[in-house]
Amino acid sequence: MRSHFRCIECGATYRLDDARYVCDCGELLEVVTDLASFGRSAEKWQARWEHRRHEVAFLRYKDVLLPDLPDERVVTLNEGDTPLCEADERVRAYCGVGTLWLKHEGLNPTLSFKDRGMVAGVSWAAHVGAARVICASTGDTSASMAAYAARAGIPAAVLLPRGKVSDEQLSQAISFGARVLEVETDFDGCMRIVQDLARRASVYLLNSMNSVRIEGQKAIGIETLHQLGWRVPDYFVVPVGNAGNISALGKGLRELKELGLIDRLPRLVGAQSERANPLYRSFVNDFAPLEPVEAQTTVASAMQIGRPVSFKKAVRELKASDGLVEQVSEAEIMDARAVVDQSGIAICPNSATAVAAVRKLAVAGAIERDARVVVMLTGHGAKFSESARRYHADPTATYANRPTVVEADVEAVARALDFD
Fold this sequence. Notes:
The protein is of the alpha/beta class. The chain has helices spanning 42-51, 57-60, 62-65, 89-95, 114-127, 140-152, 167-175, 187-197, 211-227, 244-258, 278-283, 311-320, 330-341, 349-364, 385-393, 410-416; strands at residues 3-7, 13-15, 29-33, 84-86, 99-104, 132-136, 156-161, 179-183, 203-205, 235-239, 267-273, 324-328, 372-377. Helix 5 crosses helix 9, helix 9 (211-227) packs across helix 10 and helix 13 (330-341) packs across helix 14 (349-364).
C-alpha cells in the first residue's frame, strides 16, 4: 500500500485498512502517502490533472487523496467542481478587501462540503467491508453520510443533538434512509457516544476523527488552486467547528508545496462564533492547549462544538501557515450572510462566519486591503431558511428585506411598488 496511518503525537504507524481512528496512545491519526513513489514532477502532476478535468474531482485527484482505493470502488454522487465565484463590488467593499473569491461548497450534491469527505470515507468503508456506518452530527455530516451510504447500499445511523439542527438538515438524513436518533444532549455528547460505539468492530465511524474521510476534503484546496491556475492566494478563510476541514485543507496545501506545485502556503484563517470559540481562545493565548467550552446556541449551528476533535491537527496547520483565528458575533454573522445573499449567492450562517471574519480582520489591519482572499462557503443557504426568515423579519436588522402584505388589487400592488 502507498499509504498508512501515523499518530500525530508518538509517530506509531498502522495499516490503512485497519478500522482505527486513534493511536494506542490515545491521539489522533493521520494518513501518510508516499507521494514521491509516483515519480512525477510538478509539471507532470499539473498536466495529469488538467488532462483529467472531465472526471469527477475525487477521481481526478485520487492519487494524492486515497491512492490505495481502486477506481471501481469509488462511491460518488458527482461531487466537486464547485464554483469559485469572484465576489462582486458590494461584497468586496463590505469585507474591505480588493480581491475576494467565494468557493461555494454548498453546491455539492447534499448542499455542503461534507460530500468531499464522504466520497472518500464511505468508499473506503465499502472497500474494507464495513457492515454499517455511523456519525454524530450538527446536521451536514449526517445528511452527507446518509446519502453516500444509501448510494453504497450500507446501513447508516446518525446521532443528532435534539432540537439543534435545522429542519432541512434533519429531513435529508431521514429521506436518505438513515436510522436517525435525536439525542437529548449537544453535539459533544453525541460524539462521546459514537466514539464508544466505534470500538465495536461492526460499526465504522465517519466523523472527522476518521483520517480517511479527512483526506477527501483536501480536494477542496487542490481544486481551488487548480481553478486559480496554481496562483496562490494570500489567505484561505475557513469556518471552524470540529476543526476537521481546516486540518484537511492545510494538510493538502502542505503536500502541494512538497510536490512543488506551489511555492508558498496561503495563510489559513479559522473563523468561529463567539458562542463556540475554543480554537479562538487557544489562538489568542499563543495556541495554548485546548480548554473545552460549553458551546452556546448560535445561528452558525455547525460550529456549536465546545471540544473540537481535530483541535491539534488544526493548530499544526495554522502554525505551518502563520495563520490566524477570529471570532464574530451573531449579528456580524447574519449581516454578512445578508450581504452575500443579496449579491445572488445563497450561503449558510456557518459560511457567513468566515465572511464576517474577513471584514473584522480587514478593519483591524490583520488582513491587508490589497490581499487576495479565498473564503470557503461550506453550505447552502437553503438548509437554513428559518434563521434567514427571522433575520429579515427583525426591524433592527441592518440589511433586512421585509415582505410587505398588500390587498389583492392592482392599484394596491402598484402603490407598494412605487409605480407611477
